[in-house]
Amino acid sequence: MEEKRRILVIGTGDTKADELLFMRERIEAVGGVAMMMDVSVLGDPPYRPEHDRHAVAKAADTTIEAIIASGDENSAMTLMALGASRLARSLHDKGEIEGFIALGGSMGTDLALDVALALPLGVPKFVVSTIAYSHLVPPERIATDLMMILWAGGLYGLNSACKAVLSQASGAVVGAARAVVTPEVSRPKVGMSSLGKSCLQYMVTLKPELEKRGYEVIVFHTTGMGGRALEAIAAQKGFVAVLDFSLQELANQLTG
Length: 256
What we know:
Elements: E1 6-11, H1 17-29, E2 33-38, H2 53-59, H3 64-70, H4 73-93, E3 99-104, H5 106-118, E4 125-129, E5 146-150, H6 160-179, E6 189-194, H7 202-212, E7 216-221, H8 226-235, E8 241-244, H9 248-255
Parallel strand pairs: 1-2, 1-3, 3-4, 4-5, 6-7, 6-8
Helix pairs in contact: 1-6, 2-4, 4-5
């Protein structure tokens, strides 16, 4: 029997308990295990999460009481995002989760994006958000393998549109966790950036020559997100060498 995939489910249980419990139900209905992390500040959810708000605050080297006492909503969410990110990464590194999904409005999405950035490339990451694909989510805040889903009808309470989105998202993250494959390690990997072989011919020459010498060459399309994906894998020590010859993403970032 296939081992059940454990999915970290993050949200503010004091305000979105119905939605989060619906996601837990749908994750378990398709054979996953929902590991709930509550990132509420002011109140406790009407269920017992595996990781409560006190644990999240502790991971940020503070307490929930101190966060509340600050009286600053932005500061509070920044600290909860830090704690959630650290805790999620720790759970992954200990082999206790195989995927991550979060839901939220503007502030909840901001926290979820921090968590996604804290997890390594290849870990299934889903964010169900009322602000997905809007100008409120700049590219630099998006993990390179993040999947965002617009939370239609998700502003206040469960409804048929909201349930449809949450049900599909829950099934998707469990399916993605099941579909993860262990990367091939038989050949050393070389990362290469390119805008396309029609204008950057070095790729056509270098790739086969490196492959003849026993390397696996992974080419990234530098049109905005590709270079960031290359950097993410390099940061995880996934390459023995990097050939970063296509640099226009840097100019785009600096000059727009």
